[in-house]
Amino acid sequence: MDESKRSAFDEDGAVLIEGCLNAEQLAMCRQVFDWGIENPGPNAHSLFDGSVQRSHVDNANPFAKGRLDELVASLPFGQLFADLWGSKHVWYFAEELFLKQGGRAGRSPWHQDTSYLPWGGKHFANAWISFEAVPKRNALEIVRGSYLGTRHDGSTFQNPDDPTEPLHGGGVWPRLPDIEAERRIDPNAYDILSWATQPGDVLLLHPGSLHGGGAVDADFPDRHTLVLRFFGDDAVFSPLPDHSDSGFTPAGVLYVEELASLKAGDPFRAPCFRQLI
């Protein structure tokens, strides 16, 4: 691991690893991705389903867990994250699938994954694997260094007039900033990171980073992205608000029973998560 990559992730919360996966490894990822799209789990949701226009997201599909656990054991992420974080151990959490096709699916709203998952500490990362060459204008965007700052409330993602409508409410966490509205007034209001990527490149993102984007358009109509999530020694359980009417528990909505015994500040561990190192 190049020291500049370690520093970039530590300071910025995101870094691009070019050529991380070879053609064989990428093909294995795509096979698991395609299976998941055709066999969605209980957390999947879709918009504009059809042969021409489709937007589909799935998260921690229990039917795919065996396939994903086997896949990550054959990929270089265990040693990569151990080197990136300086962590003795690395575990795999779960996957997320993003499919946008038809050239009309808009950008994903700005958010932090830590608004929806009970994660604290520096040793968390999402590995973004896109199977197309993604132009910079269609790429994921990240607010540089934001994972080191405020943990915001999530968005309901249900109000098109207010992308910051609070998920949990109650004032426990600050409301999300309306980043796109502020950028329309001042394009330099935020220090934004994004990269054009080629197949085999992997974007590493701390889930506490404010991130969003990844729209498709007429010139880049389809995007297939597999996100694999990992954690290391400095990963702790950091519960969500327990007063919420959102349907989320303090453990979120994934692996709730497996995480039920953890208290704030406990090491984030459970036997269900595949240990890679």
UniProtKB/TrEMBL annotation:
Molecular functions per Gene Ontology: 2-oxoglutarate-dependent dioxygenase activity; iron ion binding
SUPFAM superfamilies hit by this protein: Clavaminate synthase-like
Keywords, ordered alphabetically: Dioxygenase, Oxidoreductase
The organism's place on the tree of life at top rank: Bacteria
InterPro entries listed in its UniProt record: Phytyl_CoA_dOase-like
Region: Disordered, residue numbers: 153-173
The protein's name in its UniProt record: Phytanoyl-CoA dioxygenase
Organism expressing this protein natively: Cupriavidus necator (strain ATCC 17699 / DSM 428 / KCTC 22496 / NCIMB 10442 / H16 / Stanier 337) (Ralstonia eutropha)
Lineage per the UniProt record: Bacteria, Pseudomonadati, Pseudomonadota, Betaproteobacteria, Burkholderiales
